[in-house]
Amino acid sequence: MGPGGPSCGALPFLIRRDGTWLYRGSPITRKPMVCLFASTLRRDLTGAFRLQTPVESGTIEVEDAPFVAVSLEWCGCGRNQVLSFRTNVDQVVCAGPDHPIRVDWDRPCDEDGAGAVPYVQVRPGDGPLPIEARVSRAVYYELAALAVPGHCHGAPCLGVWSGGVFFPLGRLPCCREGDMGDDDDGDGCAQ
């Protein structure tokens, strides 16, 4: 018995990198149905994704992150700025200590094959790996427009503030002394 009921093994679901949900190879086009399935999504101790109800549970395949951040709203500025992301399943997440923004420096972007891929945590998993939303390219450009200089682990970078936390988005190759903003506490980055 899995948590919530007997395990059905692998279920015929796939979540594509672009956020499209497939069942037996066909896209699920009814958004309320996708939102219902998304509400049952869990991430187990091994990092595998599962759909879990009180009656049954089964693993599903996810190409990257199960959700996509499709829009961004922000208010305030500097340390007081709050960034709110809306996912493709209409969940709103405000970046901060409980919902960090993470940038995967080693994974290429879909569109051009280069660059960092940002993610925002939607909710914790059952183990060490959270359930995240991949930040869409359009939203990433909005984040980049809000970026300010800072430091992360002593290295100069550009990043954004949200909920009192500095989230680095990209490394700066080199800077002249005095060109960087000071984050007061020396290293206010989230990574």
From TrEMBL:
Residues 6-65, 66-169 form the DUF1285 domain. Pfam families: DUF1285_C, DUF1285_N. Gene3D superfamilies: duf1285 like domain, duf1285 protein. This is DUF1285 domain-containing protein. It comes from Novacetimonas hansenii.
